[in-house]
Amino acid sequence: MNDQELSRQGIASRLRLAREMAGLTQGQVAKSLGWHRPTVSEIEAGRRKVSAEELSILAELYGVNVPWIIGEKEESGAASDRAKLAARELNKLKDEDLDRLLQLIGALKTGRATRK
Questions:
Q1: Which ranges of 1-116 does DSSP label H, i.e. alpha helix?
Q2: How far is it, in rounded angstroms, from Cα 1 to Cα 9?
């Protein structure tokens, strides 16, 4: 696989992840953009190139930034799109599940600190 194909596959997988984290199906995306569902499927499989305009539209729909979709490093200090996607998922958790997750994060951080 050459660099261009790797880049397209990376974009495709980030688009799929962003769509899923936005809680949308391929059909819902297609309908809202006036596309056919197989178009979204082909994009997410990396078999169809995406124009800059389409990237911008998809980023807005999914609530992420184009630089994240195309795999560019984010500016330091800026909230990462991955963190935004994670926050959306965290908002869906029950209180007791969120408490358990916070305990796990604390344990991971403690373990990391002791390994250094």
A1: 3-21, 26-33, 37-44, 52-62, 66-69, 81-90, 95-115
A2: 10
Read off the pLDDT of residues 7-32 as tens digits, 9 standing for 90 and up.
889 999 999 999 998 889 999 999 99
Structure tokens, 77: 């200090």
pLDDT digits (tens, 9 = 90+) for 88-108: 888 888 988 888 888 888 888
Q: Which domains does the chain have, with CATH numbers?
A: 3-115 (1.10.260.40)
Is residue 43 packed enough to be buried (19+ CB in 10 Å), middle (13-18) or exposed (0-12)?
buried
Structure tokens at 39: 């178009």
